[in-house]
Specification:
This protein is 28% helix and 23% strand. The radius of gyration is 22 Å and the shape is globular. Helix 1 links the parallel strand 2 and strand 3. The protein starts with 5 loop residues before the first strand and ends with a helix. With 337 residues, the protein is an alpha+beta fold. Helix 2 runs antiparallel to helix 3 and helix 3 (49-59) runs antiparallel to helix 4. It has a nine-stranded mixed sheet with strand order 2-3-12-9-14-7-6-4-5. The protein has a five-stranded mixed sheet with strand order 1-11-10-13-8, with no helix packed on it. The chain has ten helices and 14 strands.
Length: 337
């Protein structure tokens, strides 16, 4: 039998200096208990669901965002149909006010429709949030995405996110189950070019794992970490860690902060992976092995062209705007049919 997931490491409320000097460089998930317990929306949620809804409505805009709706038969678990060519839910537009109405209307139903609105930009949907809910762990001048998540008892399939993530629970308890990036081969990942929300996700139900259908999942669980978060708790998730999230209450809400380290010009390396699949997937084994050596040298060595002067490093040096445009044009031309 696989091991039960181990608890995620925990810290009490910390300051930004500790976060930047200890938490981020370690590149390991950490739960920060009570980190945002002084937020007004958290205080409202602790008082009651009704109080939370009133407080959130007071700050919400009338702008509609995308939300997922799944019939009771999916038991809150958004994913694919049996063919893996369609999803088991519908996408509709709704405002924060409408979503809260729909969630609260069926909060006592034994088999509710699954409702999930993810990554709703806070500046657009809750414009007053930032002024009353400070996040002291991250430099306010850093480029980041701040998003609202609303739903009921839903299950988000295990997936990874490119940015680093601080997820802050506003209302309802949530269970996070995390797997290191190197467990990709054991998580039975679905299509990478037909995803649920942009990132590839596991086909396995992490809450009810079927080890007969997915035998390698047992190895993934030997490396899994888990934690249950209450309103006011925060979890730090490093880039590319797999995570499944389960809402444990009839009403759940979360705010997350996404940011990336590295040059601002960088786009997602997922594009490189897709391009590599186009150009390398059918190569003979000996050629694949040779290209692995090339990738290891040029991408993962500290300075593969230290012997070249700066002006002769080309793409491996500092790209000018003109050189970058030429490179984009070259790649675009190669991708045309």
């Amino acid at each position: 039998m696989p091991s039960k997931p181990r608890p995620i490491a925990e810290r009490e409320r910390i300051d930004r200096s500790v976060f930047e000097a200890e938490i981020v460089p370690a590149a390991q998930p950490v739960v920060l208990r009570g980190q945002v317990s002084d937020w007004p929306l958290v205080a409202a949620a602790i008082a009651s669901d009704t109080a939370f809804c009133a407080a959130l409505r007071a700050q919400a805009s009338t702008v509609a965002g995308e939300a997922w709706f799944g019939p009771p038969v999916i038991d809150g678990r958004f994913g694919y149909d049996d063919t893996l060519t369609a999803h088991n839910f519908d996408r509709r537009l709704a405002t924060v006010d409408q979503l809260l109405d729909l969630i609260m209307r069926q909060r006592d139903d034994a088999a509710p429709w699954a409702i999930y609105a993810g990554a709703m930009p806070v500046a657009r949907h809750v414009p007053g949030f930032a002024a009353t809910h400070a996040m002291p762990l991250i430099d306010a001048d850093r480029h980041m995405l701040v998003s609202l998540w609303l739903g009921n008892r839903t299950k988000t399939a295990a997936h990874w996110d490119l940015p680093q993530n601080l997820a802050c629970v506003l209302a309802g308890r949530r269970r996070f189950t995390l797997f290191p990036t190197d467990q990709v081969a054991n998580l039975y990942v679905g299509p990478i070019d037909f995803t649920l929300a942009g990132q590839p996700s596991s086909l396995a139900d992490i809450e009810k794992p079927d080890f007969e259908r997915y035998p390698k999942l047992a190895e993934a669980f030997d490396h899994a970490l888990t934690a249950e978060l209450a309103p006011g708790d925060v979890i730090y998730m490093p880039s590319l860690w797999w995570h499944a999230v389960t809402g444990l209450e009839p009403l759940g809400a979360m705010i997350n902060y996404w940011w990336r380290d590295g040059p601002a010009r960088m786009t997602t390396p997922m594009l490189s992976l897709k391009h590599a699949l186009m150009t390398m997937a059918g190569l003979p084994p000996n050629e694949k092995a040779a290209w692995r050596t090339m990738f290891e040298h040029y991408l993962f060595c500290d300075d593969p062209v230290a012997h070249l002067p700066q002006g002769a490093r080309g793409i491996l040096g500092e790209l000018s705007t003109e050189a970058r445009q030429r490179l984009v044009a070259e790649l675009s031309a190669a991708l045309r049919p």
